[in-house]
Amino acid sequence: MKVEEVKSIVKTQRISAHSHIKGLGLDENGFAIQAAAGLVGQEQAREAAGVVVDMIRSKKMAGRAVLLAGPPGTGKTAIALAIAQELGNKVPFCPMVGSEVYSSEIKKTEVLMENFRRAIGLRIRETKEVYEGEVSELTPVETESPAGGYGKTVSHVIISLRTAKGSKQLKLDPSIYEALQKEKVEVGDVIYIEATSGAVKRQGRSDAYATEFDLEAEEYVPLPKGEVHKKKEVVQDVTLHDLDAANAKPQGGQDVLSMMGQLLKPKKTEITDKLRREINKIVDKYIDQGVAELVPGVLFIDEVHMLDIETFTYLHRALESAIAPIVIFATNRGRCLIRGTDDVYSPHGIPLDLLDRLLIIRTIPYNRSDMEQILKLRANTEGLEIDPDAITALGEIGTKATLRYAVQLLTPAHLTAKINGRSNIVLADIQEVGSLFLDAKSSAKILQENKDKFMS
Ligand SMILES: Nc1ncnc2c1ncn2[C@@H]1O[C@H](COP(=O)(O)OP(=O)(O)OP(=O)(O)O)[C@@H](O)[C@H]1O
Ligand SMILES: [Mg+2]
Predict the structure, then answer these.
(1) Atom of ligand 1 minimally distant from the CA of 70
(2) What does this protein's UniProt record list under function (predicted)?
(3) 240, exposed or middle or buried, with CB in 10 Å at 0-12, 13-18, 19+?
(4) Pair 158, 276 in one domain
(5) Which of 139-148, 360-369, 415-424 is the most confident on average?
(6) What is the pLDDT of residues 160-183, one digit of tens each?
(7) Is 331 a pocket residue for ligand 1 (Cβ < 6 Å)?
(8) Distance of alpha carbon 171 from alpha carbon 36, whole angstroms
(9) How far is the centre of ligand 2, averaged over its atoms, from the C-alpha of 42 (Å)?
(10) What is the residue with the minimal CA distance to atom 10 of ligand 1?
(11) Widest CA span of the chain, in angstroms?
């Protein structure tokens, strides 16, 4: 099984609307602080989510499922993302929207299975021969390009690594130079290079450089002890999907043609059930040998009412299997038709037998003051200045329509302010955009009142 070069394939998330959320904002006893970590109010749901986080951490949740249910704009997606933040980046969290399963090229169940495996982590411990230390010298050595012309190519790279015990100078291949560049390695970083594969891992900035003016996100690590060349226990976190993908890619040369080939061929069709079974077998073996450990993560299916009866059935069965993540659903629907059926109605559009095994967390509409607080937070995150009476007006709009709608008005209001030569949003801006746009409820009302004027 190929694991060395696997980089976790992180799904890009559409979370910009939730960028102010940093966690659940609970105190050490698990009680919600009214406003903390970017979350405001909705205390009960946040506390319940905290219990779920604890269960996930203590691995008591695998194969279970949670449903976040509540009206639109009450923070369901926000709370799910806060759970992801609380779990940290060692526990996989795979977000998806129910409607993602409908694609013309890929089977619905295939989409689900792929996401399922993105949500299951594997922590692999291996003893590897490495060169480790603080980079004290990094010099690419160039030669004239063999093809002539103006180009120069790197023929090799000289790197010096320093530990508390000594230092070593290494001469490395250009391919490793590329790996170093990819990891953005600079002098003063602590790294290790795997002797067999040449894989490079940057561990952080050396303590010795901690006084320099630097990004606050930088992680400082102590100067490694021991020799530069040594055996080291390397811990790697990957997801089952990472393993599927790494082992499904056509093997062989990394020339341009084969890379193009990979771009053209949809890689999704290459991961077969057979391959997954093989991977599972090897994973089981690794676990038995104590080399690897499963880390059940979270599959978050937003707008779950978009799934149909076929995918629900598949999902229910998958939850029963030995290796399963925790599934968190969210929906704003009440009783509705289960997709794919003609006449089966059910709460939240979820089949009863699946509903039966869910822990349900309810979210409730915000009061005015919570709403204003959230709007202020959002304005802050987007770097917008907004007058207090404009916030009040937005809060009013939020209570009549939804919080989501009120949040969305911030951007056009800021534009209106700019057009009027102001940097801060004032009441008039809110009134102007409020009259330009419609929220869903008012739009629906107009439709209802003017039924005869629309095509149907
Ligand atoms: N308690 C909260 N604290 C801070 N921000 C919040 C809170 N609840 C919601 N928000 C923010 O308000 C906006 C709308 O919330 P969100 O999208 O989470 O609602 P939702 O319940 O998922 O709605 P829908 O049912 O329409 O999907 C988002 O920008 C979200 O980050
Ligand atoms: Mg949502």
Answers:
(1) 21
(2) Proposed core component of the chromatin remodeling Ino80 complex which is involved in transcriptional regulation, DNA replication and probably DNA repair.
(3) buried
(4) yes
(5) 360-369
(6) 999 999 899 999 888 888 888 888
(7) no
(8) 51
(9) 15
(10) 75
(11) 85
Ligand 1 in contact with 95 (CB < 6 A)?
no
- Among protein residues, the one with the nearest Cα to ligand 1's atom 23 is 73
Residues in CB range of 91: below 8 A, 6 or more apart: 56, 57, 121, 295, 297, 298
**Which residue is listed with tokens 């002539």?**
148
> What is the spatial distance between Cα 317 and Cα 319, in angstroms, rounded to a whole number?
5
**Pocket mutation for ligand 1, best pick of 399, 403, 407, 411 (most atoms within 8 Å of C-beta):** 403
Q: Which residues pair with 129 in a beta bridge?
A: 231
Does residue 427 lie within any of the structural domains? yes
- pLDDT digits over 309-367, tens only? 999 999 998 888 878 888 999 999 989 999 999 999 999 999 999 998 899 999 999 99
User: Does the C-beta of 333 come closer than 6 Å to ligand 1?
Assistant: no
**Residue in the block written with tokens 């709460």:** 347
237/347 same-domain check: no
Same domain, 424 and 307: no
Which structural domain, as residue segments, surrounds residue 401? Answer: 368-448
pTM (predicted TM-score): 0.77
Question: Domain total for the chain?
Answer: 3
Lookup: tokens for 140: 């690419």
Specify the amino acid at residue 420.
Answer: N
Residues 6+ apart with CB under 8 A from 162: 133, 134, 135, 136, 223, 228
Alpha-carbon span 238 to 254, nearest angstrom: 23
